[in-house]
Design a protein that fits this description.
The protein is built from five helices and four strands. By secondary structure, the chain is α+β, with helices and mostly antiparallel strands. It has one domain. The chain has a four-stranded antiparallel beta sheet. The two termini are about 15 Å apart. Keywords: Signal.
Length: about 160
């Protein structure tokens, strides 16, 4: 019995370590213009933005797309069923995220609100903003020039 728990703990650590890595400095983009609109310009931009999103979140979004969930039908599709111990999805199809940014400013917060990110919370002295992002807007948010990485928050787990 002890061996099984040990292996479960090891796999949990492997999952956490591989899904919550911050991209290398070469993958990060610095803000070029704080007033630039949050628009995704091309497929290449989408690819670069997707690299900023943790695998656990990308997998949930992919499952939702594969099952035909759209922003138009999300309210009737039991979006919360896509939640798992690492990624939480609410009934509106919003995913709970930690967004690592270059800096926390009123302009950054306004841009995130404009991208439909809800319940924004900042952590004092950190560049992490916690919020609920609509599943179909995660790539758009990741494409914002001040966003470094999007990952699930680290939830407390009972032993």
């Amino acid at each position: 019995m002890g061996d099984v728990r040990l292996w479960q703990g090891c796999w949990l650590m492997v999952l956490l370590m591989t899904s919550c890595q911050v991209p290398a400095a070469s993958d990060r983009t610095e803000p070029s213009d704080a007033t630039a609109p949050p628009v995704v310009a091309s497929a290449k931009t989408n690819e670069q933005a997707a690299l900023k999103i943790a695998t656990l979140i990308r997998d949930v979004i992919q499952r939702m797309h594969d099952d035909g969930v759209t922003s138009a039908n999300v309210a009737t599709r039991s979006a919360m069923d896509y939640s798992n111990p690492f990624v939480r999805v609410d009934a509106g199809g919003r995913i709970h995220t930690d967004i690592t940014v270059t800096r926390v400013t009123p302009e950054v917060m306004a841009d995130l609100r404009a991208s439909q990110v809800h319940n924004l919370q900042t952590h004092a002295g950190q560049t992490i903003i916690q919020g609920w992002v609509p599943f179909d807007r995660v790539v758009t948010v990741a494409a914002l020039p001040f966003v470094h990485h999007i990952r699930p928050p680290r939830y407390a787990m009972r032993r």
